[in-house]
What does this fold into?
Amino acid sequence: MTAMLEPISELKLEGITKRFPGVLACDGISLQVRQGEVLALVGENGAGKTTLMNIIMGLYRPDSGTISVNGEPVHFRTPRDAYARGIGMVHQHFMLVPNMTVAENLALGLKQLHHFMWLDIKGAAQKIRDVSERYELPVNPDAYIWQLSVGEQQRVELVKTLCLGARLLILDEPTSALTPQETDDLIERLQRMASELAIIFISHKLNEVKALSDRVSILRHGAVVFHGQTANHEPSELAALMTGHDVTLPRNEGGGPPGEPLLSVKNLRVRGDRGNLALDGLDLELRAGEILGVAGVSGNGQREFADALAGLRPVESGEILLEGRNLANRSPRAIIDAGMGYVPEDRQTEGIVPSFSVKDNLILKDFASRQFSWLSFLRRKEIDRNAEQLKERFDIRCPSTHTATGALSGGNIQKVILAREIARGPKALVAVYPTRGIDMGAQEFIHSQLLDRRREGVGIVLISEELEEVMNLSDRIAVIYKGRILKILPAVEATRERLGILMAGLADPDPPAASVHPSAGAAHE
Amino acid sequence: MNKEKLVYGGAVIVGVSLIAALLVALVLFSIGASPLATYKTILTGPLSDVFGVTEVLVRSVPLLLVGLGIAISFRSGILNIGAEGQIQMGVLASTAVALALPGLPRGILLPLVLLAGALGGALWGGIAGWLRARLQVNEILSTVMLNYIAAQVHTFLLRGPMLDPNELETGSGTPQSMRLPETAFLDQIVPGTRLHTGLILALVAAVLVYVLLWKTTLGYRMRAAGAGAKAARYAGIPVEKYLVVAMLLAGGFAGLAGAVEVTGVHHRAIEGISSGYGFAGIVVALFGMLHPGGIVPSAIFFGILLIGADMTQRSAGVPANMVLVLQGVIILSIVSAQSFLRNPYAQERLFRWLSGFRPKKGAQP
It folds into this structure.
């Protein structure tokens, strides 16, 4: 059925320009990609990558410029037109219906399976089997989406796009939700697939760009600032081109006296959303002036751990002691007042109220304090002053502090959250995936802020799946697996490989015989 | 920035009204009426004399009060569809208090009667709020059901325990309560018309609601709970508590509207006293962008529509219920406009369409 499609030998964009009110999103962009080639499209958030891809898919129409496939100009009005010419896109946020099977999800988009009153689900399943065999993307067509891991869902998206006839794949930050293992696996599969397809790989993770792509184009402020062969350039060089200045992610240089024990979590048991024991006897101790990294494959209890620390999930048993005071099952307000800061996982919905202005979000935890209110009237002047000051100090880039926070880029939203949490002067700070999906410039800033707080004696729990981040920032690294801390090791002893093995729940290979079977529980240094 | 947003929002509202007017014109046309003449009567008829203007304002008062309450609840993330029932509870409570304590001096009785109305409505709204906060009962469902219950209670009391004894004697049996003591009447503003001091009360309430929502910590909490429940919870705001508070306030305003209708206009509880204000108030609030500054003109506008509709019935033979059609179309238009504004792709498509098929530079086939 896909035979009618000629393979894409070349997609070419010339002088694509797209203007939105007040913004030049794409400024005369030209690029091309051929069959058998992986083009990495790199740029910070807001550089125009997604707009450009939406133009290719026919969701936006360019103000000027041409798109041609195999040398022939095309005008796509909808994604369907793009698919008809063999161009398909896998979005950063999966477009799958969770309570349908893989085959049913494919049938949603494939008209030829619909015959009047009858839907050819078997045909859909067969198509999926064919494609998954051909491209070595194992997928079970009868599985329900909600049963699948994020990595498997990513594969379903790929298979779906291929089944719909795409021979040029646009992958928008495909690894942003994957674990390190899943990421490696995906990159390997994409490499194998690349010979028959053309791939545009959008990312700002430069090590992945390096591993996968043949050529790289860098976008900044809507314009292409660099084209080149990936092999000839170092990631640091690409990073500098992407941000416009040299980027060196700061590292924890150690030093400083080990502080007093600050937060200790003892034998914590917490139930997950499905009633399972998501945390099953978790032990942890955090000192003042220390960054404790919690590494693990997502879904091993990180979310429940963070919720419990913030008072948003009931604790079944165990203790959370902050300076000796038990905070387990206290209200979020009581925990905040005890000096706990929190940078939540989902910044758009948990960290900020999107429709509120920047200045209102900056007082989300303190609006009732004496500083910002008087007899329960808000002190607007003080709120404005606070906002201007924090905007300056935390380099929050927004048109004004009246701007709705939800309209800012991810990095700037994260800065708003960090500004609020840090300005409160917390004793302990829990940061969950603090730089997920954030561009390098903002990442650098956030990392150095965390390290500064460490020097000031704040104890920080850093929950992250980014091994680089954890290894760069932490003093010690705790590996979480199935709701327990499998092992805690000093950051200097951690390597990517060793953490990867521990995160998979296997015994620690490095010091032989030191570690025992995982089911024996938490092993400490 | 805020000014721009206001202008933009205003432009959307105007655009939406025009679309709604066009759609209703189609309906008018199809029933054989002249859309232009009908609109002319609706919009200019009520304002052609002083009496018309005062009648418009009389209708605006309950619309304004209900709309303010709706704005509080919608801003707090709870969709109160139950103003109709809350009004009726306010009517019953205020009438009962006025009839039970006729001997009190005016300075005490009148505030007490209004307060009773507000409390009656607040209680009725609070039930839905509590059900939502405690048991996750969908408030749309519960408020609609509470409307039915309130309507039955209202009918039962007016035909039974609260029925005016005179009605039994004279035998006409009109379901209405006894007339209130005059010490419980609101003053007239313009002598010889029905316009009463409830208007001033409602305008003051509009200012108070603005201050409450945007200048106080309570308003901040409620708006945060409504606009981002999760973030509010993470920030230590007990969202459920403020759902209940919002419903108490929303019900209170609806109940107050009922009490004002009793003390200002009818001077007794009668059947059909709420006359759809509870539902129209939702349209008023949405049309006013859930902001007191928009709800005041919006309430007056809908007051004009209601009076104008009566006039078209008399002069142009167009059923007054056409206003209900107009209200429905306006709601649909507003809701579609809102989802349109949230969808950048749809906006892009509209602009594409508006810019016509004029070929773009460099994009010729």
Remarks:
- The interface with chain B takes residues 15, 59-66, 73, 75, 310, 312, 331-333, 335-337, 342, 344, 346, 349-356, 360, 364-365, 367-368, 373, 376-378, 380, 399-400, 402-403 of chain A (CB under 8 Å).
- The CA atoms of residues 11 and 33 of chain A lie 5 Å apart.
- Residues 512-525 of chain A have pLDDT under 50 and may be disordered.
- The radius of gyration of chain A is 25 Å.
